[in-house]
Amino acid sequence: MQCEKLFSTRAKALKSSVIREILKVTANPQVISFAGGLPAPESFPVAQMKAAFDYVLNNDPQSALQYSTTDGYAPLREWVANRMSTNGATITPDQVIIVSGSQQALDLIAKVFIDPNDKVLVETPTYLGALQAFSMFDPAYVSVDSDEHGLIPEALTAEVTKDAKFLYALPNFQNPTGRMMSEERRQTLVEKAREHDLLVVEDDPYGALWYEAAPPASLLSRMPERVIHMGSFSKVLAPGLRLGYLIAPIEITKKFEQAKQATDLHTSTIAQRVVYEVVKDGFLDEHIPSIRERYKNQAHAMLDALTAYMPKGVTWNQPAGGMFLWVTLPEGMDSEKMLDKVFAHNVAYVPGTPFYANEAQTNTLRLAFVTVPPAKIQEGVKKLGEVFSAG
Ligand code: PMP
């Protein structure tokens, strides 16, 4: 059958993510992969999950296996609201929707806000999965510059923000760069958002994964009336659960609920029930410090290897948390064009280009460091250094 002619304009425009293509190469166990953004599987709390599944299936199997409400399991929504409430902002459970991974939150945001050619402000670079979700609805992206201290809020002028549907921001240990937005910049961003009546989407799956000190207060806690905050259980428990949450002003939450109903009726009942059992008595506060320690050691192994093996002219940032760092090659080198040589040395990374909504800085690349053992990090970075030295 000739299927191509049946596809919608939207489907015709779809491309496979470069990352998925690279993951095919990295399926080979010989390859040292700094490409995938997977959490370290050793950090998954298997025993706690087993016990929680047993508990839920022994005590309340019928409702745990039944359909449930679109907004999510009420005790879990209440738990999220309590955990996310601060002195600055009290979050109520009716502001919370449990979503099927925070990736679904990006899809709902796109569906609820974006008409073709609507202006959407994004960081430069930004999370590829957000660009994929938003692009299905054909926005006109306006890139907002960032540097090692995160998004530069001074770029949010009256002209840039005029008629923008929202700004998509990743203040903590951003994917792809690992950058954290400074306290000063957060304050300025809040001033600019208020001045220009701008809605801000704050995507924060990595905020708990700091190494030495917690990041500055969230944008949600500073201006809950104009922030949609996204959180996830993927990096602090396990991504296979597909569980995340959205927090928004109530009139927006209601719209998300309607959009979610059409998308998947509701998030997995059993996943919500089990995660609630795991987190309700404070398990995350015992568990997350061990992930922080693990990721901090991995980051140090990567930074040491970069210092030892990168040729002159290559630069990188020192992440204060999360799973990634960002490398800049000398001007004129193209990290995507170098991939074949890199693969030939059995190493992999993700080139910077797909993380840019508009014009890309082609001499950049993302290194993920949490799933490769330190000895292999050394070996892999040494090989990268050789490829980059050869030019
Ligand atoms: N936002 C960012 C910035 C991410 O890095 C990811 C995962 N790669 C997601 C959202 C989606 O996470 P999940 O759907 O697993 O919650």
TrEMBL record:
Enzyme superclass (EC): transferase
Enzyme Commission number(s) from the entry: 2.6.1.39
Domain Aminotransferase class I/classII large: 48-384
CDD domains cross-referenced by the UniProt entry: AAT_like (cd00609)
Transmembrane listed as a keyword: no
InterPro entries: Aminotransferase_I/II_large, Class-I_PLP-dep_aminotransf, PyrdxlP-dep_Trfase, PyrdxlP-dep_Trfase_major, PyrdxlP-dep_Trfase_small
Gene Ontology terms for molecular function: 2-aminoadipate transaminase activity; pyridoxal phosphate binding
Domain of life: Bacteria
GO biological process: alpha-amino acid metabolic process
Keywords per UniProt: Aminotransferase, Pyridoxal phosphate, Transferase
Cofactor(s) needed by this chain: pyridoxal 5'-phosphate
Sequence similarity: Belongs to the class-I pyridoxal-phosphate-dependent aminotransferase family.
Subunit structure: Homodimer.
Name this polypeptide is given: 2-aminoadipate transaminase
Gene: lysN_1
